[in-house]
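Please produce the structure of this protein holding NAP.
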Amino acid sequence: MTESSKKILFIGAGRMAQAIIAGLNKTDMTIVASNNGDAKRLEEVEQKFGVMTTDSWKEEIEDADMIVLAMPPEAHESVLKEVELFVKDQFIVTLAAGIDPTYLEAKLPEGTPVAWVMPNPAASLGKSVSLYTLGKHVGEHHEKMLEALLDSIGSSEKVTEDQVHALTPITGSGSAFIYRMANSLVTSAIDTGVTEEKARKLVADMIHGAAAMLQTGEPPKKLIDQVASPGGVTAAGLEVMDEGQFDQMMQDVVTACHIRARNN
Ligand SMILES: NC(=O)c1ccc[n+]([C@@H]2O[C@H](COP(=O)([O-])OP(=O)(O)OC[C@H]3O[C@@H](n4cnc5c(N)ncnc54)[C@H](OP(=O)(O)O)[C@@H]3O)[C@@H](O)[C@H]2O)c1
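Below is the modeled complex.
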């Protein structure tokens, strides 16, 4: 069996599962999607992606090569209790915040290969930057399967379990913080008299360009200096950010995410 003819079972068929299915669907992996009983959602998934769906994942688990847990963190405990009964050598991958390999290995039979992937919503455009980390029993063939999944939704970085926890507020939640800033800039643009559509396009194009500049590898500080000449217009705006302790606020934002993740 080639890597591309593996069978992947999704438990959870929401936004993130669908983003991954959209990418994986371009490979010839066999995809089966299931969920918590929302029949309408499964029907939509079947129609949109032409993949198999089932209202009983237990019937599809036995010959699955990889099982993707694409459901909320709080659903994991009860679902893993059931998955545990069926696991032989299936590779179990979770997408859920806080559900690390240490947790999965403790809930599953000794020797089960597990991984934790932290994608972001840009997965739906094939532009996620995903963090991932592997459990103790993952072999080369498992990693290859996972790479196919990760490649289908964007770029990825293999890091340690602790780093996935630590970096989730940045690569996982980070886009929301950019959108928050974008929303303010769109409002300011509309105030100048342009249409909302135009305002959104201007801001999106500006962020796209800024991201492209960052991707050249230049440090952000140097890029700031390129835009802001001393005493100039942009410098006046940056001074307001300094007065509002923007950098401290962003650190507090990341810390708040860590605290919430720990308490969930
Ligand atoms: N969305 C993101 O940007 C993002 C980013 C990184 C990580 N994640 C993680 O990805 C996971 C899924 O997120 P999502 O955004 O796709 O959520 P979502 O759109 O709310 O979908 C959740 C899915 O989980 C299913 N589900 C819930 N409880 C279940 C259970 N007990 N058994 C089987 N299926 C169950 C739901 O079933 P029904 O269809 O029957 O309701 C639904 O299909 C979460 O753990 C989240 O932390 C999401």
